[in-house]
Specification:
single chain; alpha/beta; Rossmann fold; 6 helices; disordered C terminus
Amino acid sequence: MAETKLSSFKDERWSLHGMTALVTGGTRGIGYAIAEELAEFGASVHICARKQEDVDKCLEEWKRKGFRITGSVCDVLSRDQRQNLMKNVASIFNGKLNILINNVGTSIPKNLIDYTAEDVSTIMGTNFESCYHLCQLAYPLLKASGYGSIVFISSIAGLKAFPLSSIYASSKGAMNQFTKNVALEWAKDNIRANAVAPGPIKTVLLDSFMVCMLC
């Protein structure tokens, strides 16, 4: 197995050995980095993505590094696929899950007046509804683990207005509020919820946004 980042006895407090984690959108960008970081600290990780070839490529890379990472195909926009994903996770991790990283996100940069109903459904469904539903599905697994942690990958756009991103920003704003409600309602079950709101990070999503900005 790959060496973890635990360099001394003092660092044992950061160990994730014995922990299980699900990272959505784990084959690229922020999700890829999170999955690898969790594995480096000793967690058993499952990732999902829309394309089998992307999953296979990443799993092969991680296998060479000795990481305990599995993966499966899931388009989180599909309710049925979300349910199948969580069934897979429950089977792989024996009915328990310690960490849920709601990372998947999408954006369709347009002026506010130009958004279609389909655009709104796609963005809100991918960025917000999927997170909401995955939390519901993961709840019994997180509770059964005795120690659950949910991390939502939000965005600074959920706190500050930017051009060409009104629906994307709204989805992240909804995520921010949802995080607070999850934290409030599930604290009694020893399940924590936090949102991380990054600024611009060079990923495929940012590249596509910048192209639209320059058009």
